[in-house]
Amino acid sequence: xxxxxxxxxxxxxxxxxxxxxxxxxxxxxxxxxxxxxxxxxxxxxxxxxxxxxxxxxxxxxxxxxxxxxxxxxxxxxxxxxxxxxxxxxxxxxxxxxxxxxxxxxxxxxxxxxxxxxxxxxxxxxxxxxxxxxxxxxxxxxxxxxxxxxxxxxxxxxxxxxxxxxxxxxxxxxxxxxxxxxxxxxxxxxxxxxxxxxxxxxxxxxxxxxxxxxxxxxxxxxxxxxxxxxxxxxxxxxxxxxxxxxxxxxxxxxxxxxxxxxxxxxxxxxxxxxxxxxxxxxxxxxxxxxxxxxxxxxxxxxxx
Length: 303
What we know:
InterPro entries: LysR_HTH_N, LysR_subst-bd, WH-like_DNA-bd_sf, WH_DNA-bd_sf. Keywords: DNA-binding, Transcription, Transcription regulation. It comes from Agaribacter marinus. GO terms for molecular function: DNA-binding transcription factor activity; transcription cis-regulatory region binding. Belongs to the LysR transcriptional regulatory family. This protein is of the alpha/beta class and 303 residues long. It is 39% helix and 21% strand. The longest helix has 28 residues. The strands form three sheets. Strands 3, 4, 5, 6, 9, 10 and 11 form a seven-stranded mixed β-sheet that branches. The chain has three domains: 83 residues, Arc Repressor Mutant, subunit A; 97 residues, D-Maltodextrin-Binding Protein, domain 2, CATH 3.40.190.10; 99 residues, D-Maltodextrin-Binding Protein, domain 2 (3-Layer(aba) Sandwich). The relative contact order is 0.14. Helix 5 links the parallel strand 3 and strand 4.
């Protein structure tokens, strides 16, 4: 039988050195001495006969081989963490805490209708709800930092149940210069004005979604902050229809039309990040959220 040369602890230490930005920071995060971390990584390299790190200036950086092995080691440690969590779920009646990540654009009234019946049946399990945006929502799925994620995008390798469609419209104040344009606005004209954008919650955002052509941008963390600025005749912004419907009806905000674009629409999905080890609390919350979905599903009964 094969006996591993390395240990999970050694791989976790290597991960910490990279994630924390060095041995000193990793030692503080792990509450270990810096010398013990140096020894663990050196021993790991010696046993594998592969150089994982090299010192550049005062910082230890990964070699090409180190990058490959570190990436695979994350899969290994995540699998062990999932296995241990599964054992906990099997050994207890209910999860002590459930984390739900929700994309900021998702209509909260749908979510709240699921949370009302969840409360009396949650057996005092703590529920942590995290607001996420764009890449930050995908990170919560890929990194499995949440048990359930409501996302506008399902990353490769995961499955999601459709919940509802979310329409986005371009809006500004009726007093804004753009509001007086009698025809569809060209993207070039739009790019000359201040755009309000909602910040991506990922530490490494990927600006691959949305119209971001305007160089003059203010970045905000919430849709409500953007709406407040719009009402002060500051900028334009893409916003979910459900957030501004009343303001459009009362003409406190005005919808704009861009050449070739009336509106944007995205689908939202519920993703269980670790379906093989979900506990009873996650299963219940998943069921209650899916009961509130507002989308017509195809019927395959007669196929």
